[in-house]
């Protein structure tokens, strides 16, 4: 009697080896190990849980590996749509760049006007001394208050 190995069982049902292995570990499929440490799965036991694949293994593997190729007309249509979206995105990008330049120029102009003193005020008003700091308790007094508050 022939038994499936993990790989042949997966190919026979169109599954991945990991799926078959998880089914064995979960107890859905009974399997034993041979003297080489390979799994031996009875085909009847395997197909009791998973139906056999309808196509041969080579076709099944190619279907799993590659996505179906769309028809030529559909491909051309998709390319045309993508080109339209790309053109729209480029015009939007250009518009946003122009807006950024406008905002940047306005910001620079406002900043430069704020940096310059008002005309006529610099010669008439003498420099005023900086405002005196508010009366703050000395460092010693602050430390004393902290010590009394914290104990």
Structure description:
The protein is built from seven helices and two strands, in the order H-H-E-E-H-H-H-H-H. It is mainly α. The chain folds into two domains: 6-65, no CATH class; 69-115. It has a two-stranded antiparallel sheet with strand order 1-2. A hairpin with a 5-residue loop joins strand 1 (31-33) and strand 2 (39-41). Helix 1 crosses helix 2. The radius of gyration is 40 Å and the shape is elongated. The termini are far apart.
Strand content of the residues, in percent?
A: under 5%
General shape: elongated
| Mean residue pLDDT | 82
What distance separates the N and C termini?
89 Å
Classify the secondary structure makeup into a structural class: mainly alpha
Domain unit count:
2
Question: What's the alpha carbon Rg, rounded to whole Å?
Answer: 40 Å
Largest sheet properties: 2 strands, antiparallel
- N to C succession of SSEs: HHEEHHHHH
Q: Based on DSSP secondary structure assignment, what is the total number of beta strands?
A: 2
Unreliable stretches? none
With strands numbered from the N-terminus, the spatial order across the biggest sheet is 1-2
H/I helix tally: 7
Helix content class: 55-70%
């Amino acid at each position: 009697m022939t038994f499936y190995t993990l790989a042949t069982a997966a190919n026979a049902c169109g599954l991945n080896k990991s799926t078959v292995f998880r089914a064995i570990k979960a107890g859905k499929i009974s399997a034993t190990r041979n003297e080489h440490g390979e799994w031996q799965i009875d085909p009847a036991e395997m197909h009791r849980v998973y139906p056999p694949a309808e196509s041969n293994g080579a076709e099944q593997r190619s279907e799993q590996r590659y996505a179906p190729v769309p028809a030529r007309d559909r491909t051309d249509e998709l390319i045309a749509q993508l080109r339209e979206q790309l053109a729209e995105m480029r015009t939007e990008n250009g518009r946003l760049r122009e807006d950024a330049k406008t905002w940047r120029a306005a910001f620079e102009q406002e900043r430069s006007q704020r940096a310059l003193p008002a005309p006529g005020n610099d010669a008439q008003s003498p420099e005023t001394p900086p405002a005196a700091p508010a009366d703050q308790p000395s460092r010693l007094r602050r430390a004393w208050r902290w010590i009394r508050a914290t104990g």
